[in-house]
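Checklist before submission:
- one chain only
- standard amino acids only
- sequence pasted in full

Submission:
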Amino acid sequence: MPLYKTINVNSQTTVKIWKIEESYEDLMQPLDLKPQSLERVLGMKSELHQRGFLSVRHLLREFGYTDQDLFYDDNGKPHLKDGKHISITHSFTFSGVIVSDKEVGIDIEKQRDKIKIIAHKFVDYEFNYLDKSADDYINKLTVIWGVKESLYKLFATPGMLFAAHFLVIPFTFDEGETIAWIDYKGRKYRYNTAFLEFEGFTCAYVVP
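Returned file contents:
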């Protein structure tokens, strides 16, 4: 399947999501990968990861870029040669890319029960409003994780902790958006974030 969804966040920012249904061979065939990317994808032990990696390159093409336009800094953060900001994610059968004139972050997560087990590792303030017995508890945890992962990708600063340095303001699924804060080394940063659910997955992204 080609492009699954396009979200025009604002005049400067676009999100594109790919549903990965193609084989590894079909995804690889039309791409022109630079040597480092080819070495990386051939070295992956999981075909699921290979297909995720390649689907991101197809999303780049949807934005008018190629693999040659993408590079990574020492913290593993992706950048585009034309100076636009980019963030990348893939999870199982979906991948996503957000491109903007401003700093951005995006994350896609599969909604799974096991997130309850690790909640204490990334949730602190949010436990004040979460209801562990509610039907939407797993979904809300997945949104919180996705928002914090998006913020972490945007900041790309080693040493940041999801529970200690990031917090997500209470939200409802009807709104599909919320405010998040980073409190790190005596400085506070406020971000608008948005999220959506589809086919058992959650996508969250930071809105410039």
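Reviewer check: The two ends are 29 Å apart (CA to CA).
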